[in-house]
Design a protein that fits this description.
This protein is α/β, with parallel strands linked by helices. 44% of the residues lie in helices and 13% in strands. It is built from 13 helices and 12 strands. The strands form 2 sheets. Strands 1, 2, 3, 4, 5, 8, 9, 10, 11 and 12 form a 10-stranded mixed β-sheet that branches. Helix 2 runs parallel beside helix 4 and helix 11 runs parallel beside helix 13. The longest helix is centred in the N-terminal third of the chain and has 36 residues.
């Protein structure tokens, strides 16, 4: 949702009103007063739209919408011309802001209709025609976002209602239908693609029809696999657009295309970027193909709950172990699936603190979400990576994290012996009992006198409250958040095929 600069916007309204009135009516002071009143009411709507509103404050929301409706009606009464979309546009934006998406969609539809009527701009003035076209495109874009978010709300409601798991009376078909609706709006939205893949997998476990065709389940498996692939590719495109414009953390990608600037999946591709490779196991005694190995990468970012690795110094690689990593929830990116030229940075799951993000104010006082380049506390000389995809899940911890701990023993010991506080290891959050237990067993030197070594950086959100020295609860700060980020000048990690 965007707003045009205040003075320029109101001047455009006045000019358009003068054109309309001059063409249709005999100009007089009464009509001039009508035009001025209309512009003043639009200005009041814009001012109301800029007010801060807590989405949990229903009383404030209702009073704001009532006030907006009064101003809207006053504007319409002042100048009831069918070709003016502005009042409907701003009231739509107000409903959008407070989450009243159904009403926003109806108002956007009317604003779009009005903007397309003959007479909504001066056909003899090219600049007016171009401004009207830009307004229509903006209205259509805002309407699409409202449609998407309306479907997301319904999806969230279904998820909350089925939080305990899918029962025999419930199937994933309803959320799949909602996700298909979202993909009709934004076909390359990586989060919707990933979620559809996830629910398609769940549908394999839903109750079978008595006349069900076993081959259809195989088809669903391939559909899910392809959707996971498509989701990663769409996320990578959004990530590279953000990197190339310097909006997604780290330095800009180099514009010259390189063969390795892509999603690198599995050890065979990871080792192409490594400065050091130690083979731990091969596919056979004869072949030299990598099966599992410890590698060193230089100048990379870690981000998201799954600690996804991506390039930093002008590089645009993304390292994933398999296609089931949700990159939309792990990588800084812009919402390029909405518009290629957008500068809107994705706040995953609405988290405006993701990747150390912050809100600033534009020249027109509007909130802008920014992801700064890592510096200071989250920049390290070396990192030993002991976490990854769903590492706080017992199965993934045992199957993937434990082999990493054993394989990187030399790097872990060197880190613990180092006096450099910027040489650290990153582990899953120790609030998970099995994580804490295994790490104490395998890395006892990191827990001397029952105190966790300063060399351990815990990664990912807490499952129990944590309080600072002043007794204040620490919520989602630094690395103990759903979307942390860090820069490593050197990274030791285990990879496999």
């Amino acid at each position: 949702m965007t707003l045009r600069p205040h003075r320029v916007f109101l001047s455009a309204i006045l000019v358009s009103l003068i054109i309309i009135v001059s063409a249709e009516y005999e100009w007089n002071e009464t009509l001039q007063q009508f035009a001025l009143k209309y512009s003043r009411e639009i200005s009041r709507l814009e001012k109301l739209l800029k007010e801060r509103i807590d989405k949990d404050d229903s009383a404030k929301i209702n009073s704001t919408l009532e006030e907006g409706q009064r101003i809207f009606q006053s504007a319409i009464d002042a100048f009831p011309d069918e070709t003016l979309p502005h009042a409907h546009e701003f009231l739509a934006k107000l409903h959008y802001k407070v989450g009243s998406y159904e009403s926003a969609i109806l108002l956007y539809d009317e604003a779009i209709r009005r903007s397309e009527l003959p007479g909504s701009y001066d056909p003899n003035e090219g600049s007016d025609a171009e401004e009207a076209r830009q307004l229509r495109e903006e209205l259509k874009g805002d309407r699409e976002r409202a449609q998407y978010l309306m479907l997301q709300r319904k999806l969230d409601e279904w998820t909350a209602a089925n939080e305990g798991g899918i029962t025999k009376d419930t199937t994933p078909l309803e959320p799949i239908a909602l996700l298909e609706g979202q993909l009709n709006v934004f076909p390359q939205n990586p989060q919707s693609l990933y979620d559809k893949a996830k629910y398609t997998v769940l549908s394999l476990d839903s109750p079978k029809d008595e006349d069900g065709d076993p081959s259809s389940r195989n088809d669903l498996s391939w559909e899910a696999h392809n959707l996971f692939d498509e989701a990663q590719y769409a996320a990578y495109i959004a990530y590279t657009y953000g990197k190339m414009r310097g909006l997604a953390g780290g330095r800009q990608c180099l514009h010259k295309y390189k063969a390795n600037d892509r999603v690198l999946m599995g050890g065979k591709l990871w080792i192409q970027m490594a400065s050091n490779v130690t083979l731990i196991a091969r596919e056979s005694q004869v072949e030299t193909k990598l099966h599992i190995g410890a590698i060193t990468l230089e100048y990379v970012l870690l981000s998201g709950r799954d600690a996804v690795i991506s390039g930093y110094a002008g590089q645009c690689q993304v390292y994933v172990p398999h296609p089931y990593v949700n990159l939309a929830d792990n990588l800084p990116m812009i919402a390029s699936w909405e518009a290629i030229d957008t500068t809107t940075i994705l706040a995953p799951a609405g988290n405006r603190r993701a990747y150390d993000g912050k809100l600033s104010r534009s020249l027109h006082g509007l909130p802008e979400y920014e992801i700064p380049t890592p510096e200071g506390y989250n920049v390290f000389q070396s990192i030993v990576l002991l976490t990854g995809y769903k590492s706080t899940n017992y199965f993934h911890f045992v199957a993937e994290t434990l082999p990493s701990i054993i394989s990187l023993k030399e790097s872990i010991d060197a880190t613990l012996d180092s006096d450099n506080d910027k040489e650290i290891m990153i582990t899953p959050n120790l609030q998970h009992g099995f994580v804490d237990g295994f790490l104490r067993l395998l890395i006892p030197d990191a827990f001397k006198k029952n105190k966790v070594s300063d060399k351990i950086i815990q990664w990912g959100p807490n499952i129990r409250p944590v309080f600072d020295d002043d007794g204040e609860e620490v919520i989602g700060e630094g690395f103990l958040s759903t979307h942390p980020i860090a820069l490593g000048r050197r990274l030791d990690v285990v990879t496999w095929d």
